[in-house]
Design goal:
The complex is a heterodimer of chains A (about 250) and B (about 280). Chain A has about 250 residues and is an alpha/beta fold. Chain A is about 35% helix and about 30% strand. Chain A has a 6-stranded mixed β-sheet with strand order 6-7-8-3-9-10, sandwiched between helices. Chain A has a 4-stranded antiparallel β-sheet with strand order 2-1-4-5, with helices on one face. The longest helix of chain A is centred in the C-terminal third of the chain and has 18 residues. Chain B is an all-alpha fold. The longest helix of chain B is centred in the C-terminal third of the chain and has 39 residues. The chains are: A alpha/beta (about 250), B mainly alpha (about 280). At the A-B interface, helix 2 of A face helix 8, helix 9 and helix 12 of B.
Chain lengths: ~250, ~280
């Protein structure tokens, strides 16, 4: 479904375009199955955001390629939708208007896109908030809008760049659980960037651990905890603790 | 927001005292109105003690105003000034916004144009008036040029910095959802920069008003500026105040209108500020 082959990316100094400043990604290869939930985990500066931006088609790579369903990625496409760290909502649009944005860009008619947007707002639990502006609702609710906007285009791959990094801890847990429920309903593939070990284990089928300087994949850890994970206390499962210890060890090396 | 049952109960218990001590800050609008009334009354009283050559007083100005209106002279000149103002300002707004958008979005446009923009903006416009009169004569075209040059830069500069401060994040959102360059402009950059653009328009409206009066005072042939020169040379101080007050009111009204428009077009900014 998603194939990343020998991807490398170098950033140059802002004030000296000739001078290489950072090797953000070095020879990254990764393969993701349909309907898989993969977390990219690593410290700041390990290139995980760069990687997801290249997959999104927002950034060109210097070497290597990204294939989605066998087709090389050169620009953003409707098969991949992105959920942003700072939510990326347009402050001049209402909640409904923000969800509609993606469908509007592709030229869908007003009535149709409103209907679809309302459905997805209901899916993320925001029915009744259609006419609010982003600044009138909480951060957690704003990110639900971001998720509804991404899902409304029915992407094959949902790209999430530290989506819950900017909300408080309680909201974060709640959103994680809701994301898993939505994912179970919609059968999309998810690539999820995070720097939280617990979050990566709780959510994913596989944790891809990245290291910095140069940004590369250190190790992949399969998470074989039973699903659904929102029932009972998965985080109290001894297997969860083992995984956490293992991932932490791998990050530390 | 209505209080819930628990809050109702708490309210009874707290029993906040209803009677608040008198505070002037609770009646701010009234204070403002009283200030204006007091000013007019004092002006009327002391104005009458002064030689009318130097200072007139409100009732005399009202009388002069009625005279001028009956004679029709004032309306004629005002309409002439406003027409020129509208044309010059319209051109300044259109071109200012357009160039500001281009320079803000494209580095190439910025580096091509910014030497002229900064140089012209830094030049006091009044210094250019003699040259413009030489080129365009004493008629309308020279005045339109002055109004245009006075109004364009605040609009251009604000649009430019507005576009520049549109976070790259929002442009990325547009691109990630498949927007091409055209839709990035219309659906991301323009709405995001709108509060800045409107702030520029508000400044431009004021500067252009200064521009038209300055130009008319230079040529001293027609318009509000010409009336100012004419009445002051004739030492008709009461009449002199009529265009002055008219211009003050016009400035306030225009600026208020732009602000109202801004609230309509960009309501999110307004409520954000309130938080």
């Amino acid at each position: 479904m998603l194939e990343v082959r020998h991807l490398s990316k170098v950033f140059f100094e802002q004030n000296d375009p000739q001078k290489p400043g950072l090797i953000a990604l070095y020879d990254i290869s990764l393969s993701v199955r349909r309907n898989e939930f993969v977390c990219l985990l690593g410290p700041s500066g390990c290139g995980k955001t760069t990687l997801i931006r290249i997959i999104a088609g927002l950034l060109p790579a210097d070497r290597g390629e990204v294939l989605v369903n066998g087709n090389p990625v050169t620009s953003p496409g409707r098969d991949r939708c992105m959920v942003f760290q700072q939510f990326g909502l347009l402050p001049w649009r209402t909640v409904l208007g923000n969800v509609e944005f993606g469908l509007e860009i592709e030229g869908m008619g007003r009535e149709e896109r409103r209907d679809i947007s309302r459905q997805y707002l209901e899916l993320v639990g925001l029915k009744g908030f259609e006419d609010y502006y982003p600044h009138q609702i909480s951060g957690g609710m704003q990110q639900r809008v971001g998720i509804a906007r991404a899902l409304s285009k029915k992407p094959d791959i949902l790209l999430m760049d530290e989506p819950f990094g900017a909300v408080d801890a309680q909201t974060r847990e709640q959103l994680q659980e809701e994301l898993l429920k939505i994912w179970a309903k919609t059968d999309t593939t998810v690539i999820f960037v995070t720097h939280s070990i617990d979050e990566s284990i709780y959510l994913s089928d596989r944790v891809v651990i990245m290291h910095s300087r140069p940004g590369r994949i250190k190790e992949e850890v399969a998470v074989e905890l039973p699903r659904p994970r929102w029932e009972g206390d998965v985080k109290a499962d001894p297997r969860f603790a083992q995984l956490r210890a293992r991932v932490r060890e791998s990050l530390r090396e | 927001m209505a209080l819930n049952a628990l809050e109702q109960q708490a309210l009874v218990e707290i029993n906040p005292s209803q009677a608040k001590p008198f505070r002037l800050t609770d009646y701010l609008r009234l204070v403002r109105a009283a200030s204006v009334v007091l000013f007019v009354v004092l002006w009327e009283y002391f104005g009458r003690q002064v030689n009318p050559l130097f200072l007139s007083y409100p009732s005399a100005i009202v009388k002069a105003c009625v005279q001028l209106l009956i004679a029709g002279e004032f309306q004629r000149q005002a309409i002439g000034s406003l027409g020129i103002y509208a044309v010059g300002l319209g051109a300044a707004l259109v071109l200012g916004i357009l160039l500001g958008l281009l320079m803000g979005r494209y580095r190439l446009a910025e580096y091509l144009l910014d030497p002229y923009v900064y140089a012209l903006d830094a030049t006091p416009r009044v210094a250019l008036i003699p040259l413009l009169l030489l080129w365009f004569g004493l008629g309308a075209p020279a005045k339109i040029a002055v109004v245009f040059l006075s109004g364009i830069f605040p609009v251009l500069m604000n649009t430019f910095s507005g576009v520049r401060t549109v976070s790259g994040g929002l442009v990325d959102v547009g691109r990630a959802y498949g927007a091409g360059e055209g839709k990035i402009f219309t659906k991301i950059i323009m709405p995001a920069a709108l509060p800045f653009i409107m702030a520029g328009v508000r400044l431009g409206v004021g500067r252009a008003l200064i521009g038209i009066i300055t130009a008319e005072m230079f040529t001293a042939v027609t318009g509000m500026g010409a009336l100012l020169i004419r009445y002051s040379s004739a030492m008709a101080t009461d009449k002199f105040f009529v265009p002055v007050i008219f211009l003050a009111l016009l400035g306030v009204i225009l600026s208020g209108a732009v602000e109202a428009l801004q609230r309509r077009l960009a309501p999110w900014k307004e409520t954000e500020r309130a938080l």
